[in-house]
Amino acid sequence: MAFPASGTVEAWAYDYVCGTDLEQKLHPPGTPKLWSDSSQRAAIHITAPGRPPELQLDSRGHRTPRLQAMRSPECRAQLLHTFLHHELQAAELMCRAVLAYPDTPSAFRKGLMGICSDEIRHMAMYSAHLKRLGYRYGDFPVNDWFWRKLPPDTPPVQFVALMGLGFEGGNLDHTRRFAARFREVGDEAGAALQERIGDEEIPHVAFAAHWFAVFSGAPLTFESWQAALPPPLSPKLMRGRPIQRDARLRAGLSGQFIDALTTWVPDS
After folding, report:
1. Which is deepest, 10, 17, 19, 213, by most CB within 10 Å?
2. Which residues constitute the domain of residue 225?
């Protein structure tokens, strides 16, 4: 593996993904301004992230708690802990894409690093609310689900289809649903946090929609997006209930795309 030159954005991205220090995951140093020389770029494919010893990995899925259970601060903390770990994985995967796609336009790679910075800021927001509830990052097991679902040899069009239009698109729905639940159990700060993060995901989805069209060479449609998802993943995992039509429209998705996503059912 050809390691990126010290002091470059690529070296920062590599260190962030592979690092095993929890404090550095939560509060990394500032991103450098210098990018690697174009003549020295080589694709770097990272198959798994570094994990701090404080994080206990658990591959089992967890059911969404019922509303009554969310009246418990511990239950809400566990949910926030899960969301925080989602943000960490998103930040890491943006860095992984920067390293894996050195020949993509610089605007794309710079955009990935901008999204990475947003995800790290979201991590800090979740961590602060966790502390208000009496918990910290590492108090509950974590699941590297995003990493397992994104193949290491994913081409750029497939990356934006799954990560941006898929996972982050679904988060437009999930954040509003959980905001309503947090508010109903009296956690207004948790509700406001979900709403803010949901709003800040909208430009991420718009970024993915733009670059999907660039990389595929054709306008984004529901059919082209579905075809780009790595099997066996399907639109079922990329939407919440109810679908936030307005947020998706603000992200640049067409009404036809949203209608198709809303009514899509798996083949029997």
Report:
1. 10
2. 9-33+64-263
Residue 45 lies in a domain: no
The 3-state secondary structure of 237-258 reads HHCCCCCCHHHHHHCCCCHHHH
Q: Which residue has the tokens 């989805």?
A: 205
Tokens of 190: 């948790």
Instruction: Write the pLDDT tens digit of every residue in 221-256.
Output: 999 999 999 988 999 989 999 999 999 999 999 999
Q: Is residue 58 part of a domain?
A: no
Token pair in block for residue 6 = 């010290």
**In terms of pTM, does the model score above 0.85?**
yes
How many domains are there within the chain? 1
pLDDT tens, position by position, 81-135:
999 999 999 999 999 999 999 999 999 999 999 999 999 999 999 999 999 999 9
